[in-house]
Amino acid sequence: MASTEPKDPDWPKEVHFRPIGRICSPFDEKFGIPRQARLAPAARARLELLPPYDREEAFSGLEGFSHLWLVFVFHQDCLTAGWQPMVRPPRLGGRAKVGVFASRSPYRPNPIGLSAVRYHGLERNQQGLALHLGGVDLLNGTPVLDIKPYVPYADALPDASAGFTAALDDRRWPVVFSDQASQELASADPGGQLDLRALIEQVIGLDPRPGYMDRYPQRDTFAVRLHGCNIHWQIDDQHAMVTRIIPMHSAH
Ligand code: SAH
């Protein structure tokens, strides 16, 4: 086997990539974004392609695939934050540490993310060419570096072992809506096109509060921003209750 010649002057010490597109998602802040792709199927997004990549022929054949891999940049905070060899994954309650390369933390030497998402097709309109996606774990504005089809024969590994994630608590909170929140939901998403009810149920059901919040007093109010609305909720031992859905333009 050929070994890498350390003195090879052509070996790239730095690489430069250019985003091919930009994510338009319901998540304007990191709080509330699911910790992995596909945990919230109602998290729909558009991937808006940038020229010169906004050409239909670059996507021909993709229509037969139900899922895609996205390779993207954790552009918010992570490009400048630096990295640590050990991180505290939120699903270990923020208590235990693992190596950064044993984690899916956004804070890594090269802040590159990888998500398998649902593919709902390509659309050309006045704004340009876009892919419709579902189940994203991506901040609004995320730069995307590459798209590849998810190929089950190679990518699906039913016998894979799950490391420290095997022991995770995948409990979901049942989510209910107060009368006021139900009325506000009806005006925030009148035709249901945003699927805002399902998105709220899935995001809050996953309990986005940091692990240490387990010890917080009950019935504190929390807030998350989805599709430009401030969603308030409270937790008791039984369920999460959505109390308000306030569009940002009228938030006070
Ligand atoms: N599935 C990806 C991402 C897992 S981490 C992977 O395994 O590589 C998911 C978290 O990344 C989200 O909960 C959110 O807090 C954060 N995130 C998503 N988009 C981001 C962005 N553009 N910049 C910084 N952090 C982001």
TrEMBL record:
Domain of life the protein comes from: Bacteria
Keywords: Methyltransferase, S-adenosyl-L-methionine, Transferase
Domain TsaA-like residues, every copy: 17-159
Recorded GO MF terms: methyltransferase activity
BP GO terms, sorted: methylation
Family annotation (Pfam families): TrmO_C, TrmO_N
Keyword Transmembrane among record annotations: no
Homology family: Belongs to the tRNA methyltransferase O family.
Protein name (record): Putative methyltransferase, YaeB/AF_0241 family
